[in-house]
Write a structure and sequence with these properties.
- The chain is an alpha/beta fold.
- The chain has four domains: 277 residues, 3-Layer(aba) Sandwich (Rossmann fold), CATH 3.40.50.720; 282 residues, Rossmann fold (3-Layer(aba) Sandwich), CATH 3.40.50.300; 170 residues, 2-Layer Sandwich (Domain 2, N(10)-formyltetrahydrofolate synthetase), CATH 3.30.1510.10; 83 residues, Formyltetrahydrofolate synthetase, domain 3.
- It contains 33 helices and 37 strands.
- The strands form ten sheets. Strands 12, 13, 14, 15, 16, 17, 26, 27, 28, 29, 30 and 31 form a twelve-stranded mixed β-sheet that branches.
- A hairpin with a 2-residue loop joins β16 and β17.
- The chain is globular, with a radius of gyration of 35 Å.
- GO terms for molecular function: ATP binding; formate-tetrahydrofolate ligase activity; methenyltetrahydrofolate cyclohydrolase activity; methylenetetrahydrofolate dehydrogenase (NADP+) activity.
Amino acid sequence: MASQGDGVAKVLSGTEVAKEIRLGLADDVAKMAKVLPDYKPGLAIVQVGGREDSNVYIRMKLKAAEEIGISATRHQFPRTITEAELLMKLKKLNDDPSIHGIIVQMPLDCDNKIDSHLITDSVSPDKDVDGLNTINEGRVAVGDMGGFLPCTPNGCIELIKRSGTPMQGAQAVVLGRSKIVGTPASELLKWNNATVTVCHSRTKNLEKVTAQADILVVAIGQPEMVKGSWVKPGAVVIDCGINAIPDPTKKTGQRLVGDVAYDEAKLVASYITPVPGGVGPMTVAMLMKNTVLSAQRAFDKLISCKWNLRHLPLKLQSPIPSDIAIARAQEPKDIMQLAQEIGLFPGEVEQYGSKKAKINISVVDRLKHSKNGKYVVVAGITPTPLGEGKSTTTIGLSQALSVHKGKNAFACVRQPSQGPTFGIKGGAAGGGYSQVIPMEEFNLHLTGDIHAVTAANNLLAAQIDARMFHEATQSDTDLFDRLVAKIGGVKKFSEIQLRRLQRLGINKTEPDSLSPEEKKRFVRLDINPETITWPRVLDTNDRYLREVTIGQSPTEKGKTRKTGFMISVASEIMAILALAQSMDDMIERLAKIVIGYDNNGNPVTADDLGVTGALAILLKDAIHPTLMQTLEGSPVLVHTGPFANIAHGCSSIVADSVALKLVGPEGYVITEAGFGSDIGMEKFMNIKCRTSGHVPNAMVLVTTVRALKMHGGGPPVVPGIPLKPEYTKENLELVKKGVCNLQKHISNGLKHGVPVIVAINRFKEDTDAELNLIKEMSESSGAFRAVICSHFATGGPGALQLADAVIEACNKPSSFKLLYQSSLSLREKLNVVAKEMFGAGEVVCSPLVEQRLKDYEAQGYGNLPICMAKTSLSLSGDANVKGAPTGFTLAINNVTLSAGAGFVVLYCGQITFLPGLSTRPSFFDMKYDTATGEIHGLF
């Protein structure tokens, strides 16, 4: 502070104080960047029109931001912008997680009528660094300083503090009651324990009131209104005014003065702010301080990652009601509330109603510097046809970890196909008191991802036959002229066509420059119909579409061929969606899809057919996982659902990646793999983890008494038929004989270097003796822990011991390893999986398979992992063989290439790609209540 001599007030230099504040803020920004490289506070300055005085202020703010290390961007909109358009622009800024502060430069210089109060209130309170949103103003009014303090008033308080004059007990007078300065300044003085009087233009005996002030804040907007006689001797005078008055001695013909007659007041006051150079620079400094504060709050959330999860209490009943009755009795939280609780920003969440939402994969990029959480995969032993509760365990464990252990925990599960939902198996939302809700929505259309896969798959199928038809019915010239369209009267190759030319080695970009031979090579895909492997799909069990003849209409001119349908979730596009790590990655994979071969034996791809871009458009929303919740209000990501006995059977890499970032390094992601360790877990490890680079910390292996009794020689378990007495009464001998299957699955997990925790899913018929026998034999067979679980009956509390075991296992260093290296031949990989995972003694491939494996390697696909398509009901290729067979011969009768997904599929025995409806499907019991809108009979 500079003194002007004895008997003259000391100058409170806002310029000097602001400089000091900026240096401190720059240090704060640098400290954050040390922890999170490239992390910068983001400030958006919104301007309408181009007033020169506004430009001056904006340049000051941009300069200050640059000095501090704030990334400030100017968003200047034309005078013609409408109120609706400006509100939409502000919403985008509100939703942008890289923006920590938003200011709207006033006044709005616009042609259209715009409510400035509405505009300032439309800035999110969490980003309102000007402190002008009514919510932040209201906080100040009631003494809540947890929001953003208005910049000019806060600058005034800072200058008063720098004077050393105590505010507590002081008589303070604020001259002016404006929303921006006067009123909030009075509130801040009050909460600093001053006794405050607010004056305005209608205050009587104004000069007498101000003369009583120990602290005088002037924001009246009248040049030099406050005279020296109005000031109490020794008072602190804060002048917020800035007014231009005529001054012929200046080049501009005017000079700036405050609302206080400075030359008079400085002879009476003890401290006084100059104009300019007083409150003005402090306003900018406080704006920067609020921006850094906002960035620090976001930074702290990134570092701590601790959720503020509000759980939903369970209403346990005995006997346990039906799954749908339990689900319907629990009112889910609003999905935006859950999203906020787990650290998501509004712009990262796209609502589908109030109970589910798509989460944008941009979350992964926002949190790229954050460490991943612990990664736990849930698989099962070889199941009965009824399933053993793998999804239920996934949900119950996540409830135990998040709600009852206070850990950040996500469950990542597959989206169920509607085929089984309306068939016999039922849904996959879990069961009992460990479910995803709303379970009706979970098991039906959800957010339409499977429909998007169906549409994309069938568009590609349609293009295959359409292209063959057009090539068969047109000359080279006609094909070329139709394929290379005129744009603006000029022929031009599209981007995807230029890629095809490059693959053909034709380095030309002008259509007319191609020779007749080059044109022929370009337009003729020359697909061999006998080699086409791309089917059509639908999400319905319809056995009569397994094999069909297409092209029967006269308009197809006899171009018939045999093809067939698969269930939608068996489509390679579903596998691509599950393995893609970004939109760009997905597009690259779609382009690589091989649908068959030409007559020279060369692969024909989706990119050759020109359909890649269209497929990506159909899948642009499907790549984002869906956020739902458990019965206890903890988060679940639902995404993709490739069949495990046909494809790789795991939820998506994208969902796991999003969850691993959101839970933070001390959190847990419980992700599901299909069926047993022999197919689901093996593919999770060697396909999914190989692709994603994620390292699992532990494996949870779900087993049941009834499954082990089946493997010990019990009678067949048939859906729809009551269990035989062997399964409803204690039988230790059957359990002991069947434990060999469990032991094999434990061994399979250990071969990948991860601790195996056995979750013994308790059913009401099970006895303590049976359960304890399994526990003892599991741990003696190498399991890290074996835990008896009752989460079906009690929710999260029934999986607390399982949660403890998972936490303990995940605290140990990971020794994860892949089962085989990519450099092995496809045949060698097949041998490793068959012998190590299944227990086979020999692998026999048909001559066709042997030849195709050699062809794939010659075509450059030999480095791909393999995906075994086999029954889930046996470790062998024969569903009737139970227990843990060894030394058997595994016959491989077919092989296909999923070049886009990035694996080679080998088929053991008869695999059903499209299930059929049973005599009495589940839908016999379903109905829709038009009076209540409820669905009845869905489980």
